[in-house]
Amino acid sequence: MKIFHKLLLLLALTGMYSCSDDFVNVENPGALAPSQYPASVADLEQLLTGVYATQHANGLYGHTMLGKNLWLWDHTLDLSWQGTPTWIQMGQNNSQPNDSFLYDTWRELWRGVQRSNTLLTSIETYRQKAPNDAAAIDLIKGQALFLRAWYYFHLVSFWGEGFNAATDGAKMGVPIITGVASGLDETQVPRKTVKEGWDFIISDLKAAEGLLKSTNWTGATDKYKVSGWAVKGFLGKIYAYQADWANAKTYLGDVVSNSGKSLVTFDVYKDMFNGKNEFTSESLFELNLNVDMTARGGDDQSMGSSVGMVIAPTYVSDNGGQAASAWSNVFPHSKNIARFGFNEGHYFKAGTTSANIASVDPAYIARSQEAKKKQTVDPRLWVACYQPYVDSMVVNGRKRPVSHYLDISELDMEAWSFRKFTNPNGTEAEINMANGANFPWLRLADIYLLYAETLSHSGDNVNALEYINKVKRRAYGLPVNAPSAIDYKSLTDLTKASDAVLKNDPLKYERWAELFGEGHWWLDVRRWQIGDKEAAYYQRIRGGAIQWDPTDYAQPIPINEITANVNMRQNPGY
């Protein structure tokens, strides 16, 4: 699937090392002269590959994005590893400006912007030399604009002092840079407002929409590319996030009615996050990855991701205890297990003093299997997580039970393992810690739920409820478009959750359960302003009590940036 990426890299390297003397800048023999490069559409495609690749650089989906920031802020996880104080503080909603993980994400997002700007500048340089290539150039430009908007989307969402342009538009956003800096002074850029940030993102996406129109990439080596429907879906998502319900209805409704996309069956869905069933009928935009035995994940030169290394399951060792399948640093917060409706008690017998398979209660196993069979628990729990001593993983070709998570001394804690974005056929070490599971970043279930939310704000509660139920029906293996016994009867019906936030809110619950662990929940928490309620529900992580202040919605600008940019101002609260 990813041979295309390797081929492009080979072509790029071949081009650099076999060019004639006049191809290089004589003032710097190691640099490519803008007057000579890019010299073809293929050169532009090489630059575009780098813009895509940055999405799975170390600070983003190559390593840090989930288990070292997003999942900490929204309490998807708890920490088994207790050796990094700033990591613990992040999980307590107390992020620090000197946090290296936070800086990694900041740096890589700006690198994505820089690469996008370099490509966009090169596109206009090449366009003047090759007017006959206009159609191909426009397709590349449309993708570059989408990707720049994607990087800015995360920058504004994570670091904007406010989130909603209508209510917080005058607050500090992030700098907006559209060109390639030629000197240090051009990097000393002050922050724009939140409104200016969202306006810029929407402007890029609207331009991409015009260039890509209804472009669909069907070739095996092109499926990862941004399509016209991906642009429309992204715009609809942003409009919904900004509570611009009129525009959200237009764009989301267009995707729902005209894109030809459809929800996959549950059997396809449950393995969609583990390197199987990629680019399905549900997918609008996926981060394309592949197992890479030549380059370890966590680097954009690798085709894989090392997210799985951080979240790796733990399994039963030969002596009946626990063993790590990789770093195995984090596990699902125990409150999340209950939120899916699991209340079958604990797997260890009362009075257990050591985490050993011999201490497992057989009655618990029977109750769990019955609950799963009768679907008294949300089936998506087992899509997102491995259940200790019930589920198994493969280690060096041998199936082993998943264990109580490693290094968790609290034996009464529901210490399950993550399943999404882990390797189903072995350990992370067996795939060079370069996991090939794609990240389906924008998919139809997300669109359906945003559309339902939009319809509810447009006075159409009947159809809003129907789109929520479509997503729920799929989760229970039922026909998506036919009414069923498990349907919600109203927008305030009971859900599987018992907490005050989600108990009587099917829309919020379905977004939480359906998209669990995919990196969207924190932005829902932020836009709905429910951070205090979520902190009250989760209460604590293993490193201490979860704290909450209203300023916690915006992350601290990394101290490295404050030092490097004299015009940068810190967010309040830090």
Which helices and strands, and how do they pair?
Elements: H1 3-17, E1 24-25, E2 28-32, H2 41-53, H3 66-73, E3 77-79, H4 85-91, H5 100-129, H6 134-159, H7 165-168, H8 194-212, H9 228-241, H10 245-258, H11 266-269, E4 283-287, H12 307-311, E5 314-316, E6 322-324, E7 330-332, H13 334-339, H14 362-374, H15 381-384, E8 385-386, E9 392-395, E10 398-401, E11 417-418, E12 439-443, H16 444-456, H17 461-475, H18 506-514, H19 521-528, H20 531-538, E13 540-541, E14 544-545, H21 559-564
Antiparallel strand pairs: 1-2, 3-7, 4-12, 5-6, 8-11, 9-10, 13-14
Give the gist of this structure.
With 574 residues, the protein is mainly alpha-helical.
- Describe the sheet with the most strands: 2 strands, antiparallel
Strand order of the largest sheet: 1-2
Radius of gyration: 24 Å
The whole-number mean of residue pLDDT values reads: 94
- From the helix content, strand content and strand pairing, which structural class follows? mainly alpha
Folded structure, characterized:
This is Outer membrane starch-binding protein. Residues 34-239 form the SusD-like N-terminal domain. It is found in: Cell outer membrane. By secondary structure, the protein is mainly alpha-helical. The chain has a domain at 310-420. Helix content is 42%, strand content 8%. It has 21 helices and 14 strands. The chain has helices at 3-17, 41-53, 66-73, 85-91, 100-129, 134-159, 165-168, 194-212, 228-241, 245-258, 266-269, 307-311, 334-339, 362-374, 381-384, 444-456, 461-475, 506-514, 521-528, 531-538, 559-564; strands spanning 24-25, 28-32, 77-79, 283-287, 314-316, 322-324, 330-332, 385-386, 392-395, 398-401, 417-418, 439-443, 540-541, 544-545. The strands form seven sheets. A two-stranded antiparallel ribbon has the order 1-2. The chain has a two-stranded antiparallel sheet with strand order 3-7. Helix 1 (3-17) packs across helix 2 (41-53). The longest helix has 30 residues, at 100-129. The protein is globular. The two termini are 44 Å apart.
